[in-house]
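Milestone M4 deliverable, item 7.
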Amino acid sequence: MQLRLAARVEVPPLRYRLAPAADSLKGEGRSIPGQVFLKLIIAENGGFTIEKACLGYNYPMTEPTESEITIEQAIVNYIEVMKLARSLNTWKTYENGMGLFKQVLLDHKLDPAETPVKSLTEAAVGWFFPALKGYAPATERLYLTAAHSFYQYLAAENLAEINLPRIEQLIHLRARRPGVRLPQFPKDAIEQIVDAILKGASYLPSKEDEKEYLRFMRDRAFLVTLADTGLRVHEACALRRGDIDWNEGQAVIIGKGNKQAVVRFSLRAMTALRDYFAARAKLDGASGKPLGSLPLFARHDKGAGKKLINITPTTGRNIVTERVGQILGAEQVGSITPHSFRHYFVTRVLQSSGNLKLAQELARHTNIAVTQRYAHLNNDELDKGYYQAFEGDSSEKEA
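Output delivered:
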């Protein structure tokens, strides 16, 4: 006699209060996990007769318990948390750092894919340091922050017993300190660019060439905005018309680290923006969208057509490159970047006010030590005293 599975009838679980079927039924793979089903076993012996009917239970796939989670699974979960909690750039940096951390574990015969996360100890942080020596000190710091944050995640989720103070001590004692680089930029050259693009009629294209005229008016407003607001290039590119309070001359932005901040606009920056909007009024009106939703700085190229699309940071950098070459000459291209305008902004605030705290707030520096790096550019009194002592007269110093 030959037995075969002839049919299956799914039975709603709530209608039957049944214990799981025998172990012999656990391997049944033709039903949805977690559902009770009716198995009909039919005897084939010339004719069809029901030999036996029994109820079975298909065991559902279960998530691994905390004790079964591997290091790799924990890292994947941690990176997903960071994706939601951090900016895109920070998340990418943490992902790269944890990729290197996994390689370090493999080099020490600890396979992240097989090892339970509860087995991970602070010793792995000590293994991490030699692998980071080939990176710049700043990158080393970022990757160590990623690893430290991962251990904090494990402790918070109770996935492993972690001695966080020991990790902090290891990082404090063994991590390299990034060297402090004083910001260098051609202050006079930036002022030359701003003055030229505001006053230089020779650079202004004819209004008949609509695209070029719009591009010039946009670039003019963009460069003056960078110089007089201290905005980072990605912050400026993301602005929309509705972000600006035209009465107060201010804008509320979401800046670095997803922090909200108020940025102030100078009168000449506001004037340059209004001139730009007047030039593109036809495009704005034809868009059919509320003016407040339109980009502050829009693309004016073939790819954009008549659509109003925000410029990207890459376009912002290209604007600076093009106008530096046009005004200062090709040999100066690369010497000034969008961030040079931010350095210029902070320095101007320090030189005019002498107030370090004010400069910190306007530049939106979290740490005043960052702002203090600019103070050396405002040491005119020290320069004067030095040259009086060694040259007899400050006017005699050589360039």
